[in-house]
Amino acid sequence: MHPGLTLKNLYHTKISGTGNAFPSKGKWISNNDIHALIFGDDFQQKMAEKNLDPHYYENELGFKKRFWVHTPGSPIVRDELTSADLMIEAANNAINNSNVSKNEIDFIIAVTITSPRYATSMGAYVAGKLGIQAPAMEMKSGCSSNVFSIVLAAQFIKSGARNVLIVGGETNSKIIQPGTNMLYAGGDAGAAVILSKTNDASKGIAAAYLNTEGSFSGHMGVPGLMPPNDEDLLNKNYFLTYSDTAENFLNQAWSQTPGILYDATGLTATDIDCLIPHQVLKKRTQFISDASGIGLDKTIDILADYANCGSASLLLALHKARETKQLEEDKTAMLVAAGGGVSWGGLIIKT
Fold first, then answer.
1. How many domains does the chain have?
2. Which residues contact 151 (CB under 8 A, 6 or more apart)?
3. What are the beta bridge partners of residue 8?
4. What tens digit of pLDDT does each residue of 197-213 get?
5. How confident is residue 163, by pLDDT bands cut at 50, 70 and 90?
6. How far is the C-alpha of 263 from the C-alpha of 253, rounded, in Å?
7. Strand 343-350 to strand 163-171: parallel, antiparallel, or no bridges (unpaired)?
8. pTM exceeding the 0.85 threshold for the entire prediction
């Protein structure tokens, strides 16, 4: 495994605001709704005949409900919500929850794997819709994108930016193959964070770790080539897929990150007030809790409410941590994520 990149002392940075987005035009979907979607209205009888436990997805995997802007298996129509719509609402909510005005934002990073535009940067698109005149870009490093984005934002701030808006949005419901177990795991969401310059040298990123192993890039994601072609359409290659091929590697990636962060900072698990992992499934949350030595009582777990919202998950969990007062002023948090690419990493941030 390549050693990756470890960065230290990106201080003078604070979290000014966070926000999420679940617009009323979408809908909340329970596990029973998905049972009915797969097996029909008599799903209880059908699942019993197949010896399937309808409570498995909540009890074992952690999923209870999720937000969808689209029903998998139905035609995708132009007036449905897109990941850009979710980003814009989340960004506005984050701005409203901060003391930062739009004209004080110096850079925008948009994160998504479900962009509604083939050749347009979602950074530019979202900036235009928000009415913000600032340089903007799109980041795509799978589920670890927001770890990469937060580190990049802190570097911009260290170099002179006042405020950087990071906004993520995913519409996984549009790329989940109907009739599969992936229906239970995939949620849609928008989430955003504003990082700002501060004169307080004790606030910011104590250490960050970033890494990528590109040889696994074909084992997770949407395999169909763009622009769409007849062969991939025929073979249904425009749905999200996941292979177990990279599972052992992902375990290594998740397990090595906390130790690298501890070594870089001299901190230990007892110094961490809040663990914020990418939200994958119940056993993965337990895995990173064990690997970091940080108890589940200090670990943000939003799987039951939102399922796996892809690259939006980490910002969604960060917002939840602030909203529930698990991450307040003068606290220390560890953020960890790994996913498609494979890219992975983490950071320790002092608030």
1. 2
2. 7, 10, 205, 208, 210, 345, 347
3. 207
4. 999 999 999 999 999 99
5. very high
6. 16
7. unpaired
8. yes
